[in-house]
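Tip: read the tokens left to right.
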């Protein structure tokens, strides 16, 4: 946890710090740890935005059945556009998360497995080229 200052909430101060001891420090170098931290912070921000938009959509859905139902003739069209825009943002974020998880992460995992299963591959070659295949 980072230090909490005035006006910040848990989303703002939560982060990951990788502390890797031997023998893993040969594979997960400080550079790799920084790259993992960048990826984590990006995914954490995406999740935060999804949480906020989903919460707003839930409140708007309950408002449409409650208070806003009484003034539907006045704000009905505008309210539908707002709810439609929120639903589109939620859909975009879900598609982005799907793409990152299944298209990027899974593809890199399969590439790494193929590299590790090759005959004649040397461990020293993997260590020299680890940043190319595992992080980027």
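Filled-in amino acids:
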């Amino acid at each position: 946890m980072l230090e909490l200052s005035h006006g910040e909430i848990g989303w703002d101060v939560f982060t990951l710090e990788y502390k890797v001891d031997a023998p893993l420090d040969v594979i997960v170098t400080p550079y790799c740890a920084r790259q993992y931290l960048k990826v984590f912070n990006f995914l954490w921000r995406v999740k935060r935005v999804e949480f906020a938009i989903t919460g707003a959509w839930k409140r708007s859905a309950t408002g449409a059945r409650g208070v806003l139902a009484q003034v539907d003739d006045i704000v009905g069209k505008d309210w539908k556009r707002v709810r439609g825009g929120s639903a589109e943002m939620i859909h975009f974020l879900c598609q982005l998360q799907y793409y990152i998880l299944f298209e990027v992460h899974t593809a890199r995992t399969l590439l790494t497995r193929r590299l590790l299963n090759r005959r004649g591959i040397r461990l020293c070659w993997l260590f020299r080229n680890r940043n190319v295949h595992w992080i980027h």
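The CA atoms of residues 2 and 78 lie 41 Å apart. The chain has one domain: 15-135.
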